[in-house]
Amino acid sequence: MTTVPSGVRAGRVESLVRKAARHRLGDRICSAAAGFLRVVLQTAALALPLGAAAHGGLSMDEDQCKLTVGPYSMHFAGYQPLANGNREFCEDIPQVGPTVVVMDMVDEALRAMPVEVRIIRDTGSGGGNEVGKGDGEAGPLDAITLLHLPPRLYPAGSVPLEHNFLQPGRYVGLVSAGEKQQYVSRFPFSVGEPRTPYGSYLLMLLVPVAGFLLYGASGRARRAAEKARR
Questions:
Q1: Is 68 inside a domain boundary?
Q2: Is residue 175 within 8 Å of 117, Cβ to Cβ?
Q3: Do 31 and 122 share a domain, yes or no?
Q4: Is the pLDDT of residue 211 over 70?
């Protein structure tokens, strides 16, 4: 029986320990790189324009534009027939000019309630949150009102409105319902102002960077694994 010198055994043990350490290092590098890439993608996704958060009572629900008025909801659809034909939009209006908006009541209860609609210029006072208080009263609100449909019943369940926007800019829509107009929806929107897709730019920038870092990390992990096999 051949006896392995203790120094050789110690060298083999040390070599195995180094290999195991390299394997653990490679695993940690890959895990850290994958975690970093996941964080980058989540951050970029959050930076994409979502619309619902930025447009008050308007939001997308199953590919339909929904307007929330208190506990009730309407389907919202906007058109610019002269400029865009039958193309439908949900929040910002693409350009100035004649515009048609149709709000269809989803909840039957709204048909029995007086509904009031205003479109006002956004003066910067909280996106309509402050000027919208007391919508049914005459006063400062009238000075910035472009369109006003007084409270009335819509038994057919559809509220149509037309307006010719002459100037690009920021506006606020105010829709209220109820005998005391107690249910109010406010949604800021723009007309004729291109939206800068900052979230898309961020995604285009971060994904290649994250991919490069992940590739570099995986390369270091491969080299560590190769050294461990030697």
A1: yes
A2: yes
A3: no
A4: no
pLDDT tens string 133-174: 443 344 578 889 999 999 999 999 999 999 999 999 999 999
Q: What pLDDT shows up at residue 207?
A: 59
**The residue type at 145:** T
Q: What is the DSSP annotation of 93-157?
A: BSSSEEEEEEEEESSGGGGGS-EEEEEEE--SSTTTTTTTTTTTS-SHHHHTEEEEEEEE--TTS
Q: Bridge-partner residues for 119, per DSSP? A: 147, 173
For 183-215, the DSSP string reads: EEEEEEEEES-PPP-HHHHHHHHHHHHHHHHHH
Residue tagged 């949900």 (tokens): 90
Place of tokens 């964080």: 39
CA distances, 67 to each of 16, 80, 90, 104, 184 (Å)? 66, 19, 10, 9, 11
Highest mean pLDDT among 23-27, 142-146, 160-164, 204-208: 160-164
- pLDDT tens-digit readout, 102-127: 999 999 999 999 999 999 999 876 54
Are residues 111 and 34 part of one domain?
Answer: no
Domain of 39, in residue numbers: 6-48+198-229
Task: Look at the chain and report how many structural domains it folds into.
Answer: 2
Cβ pair 138, 110 in contact under 8 A: no
Same domain for 172 and 216, yes or no, is: no
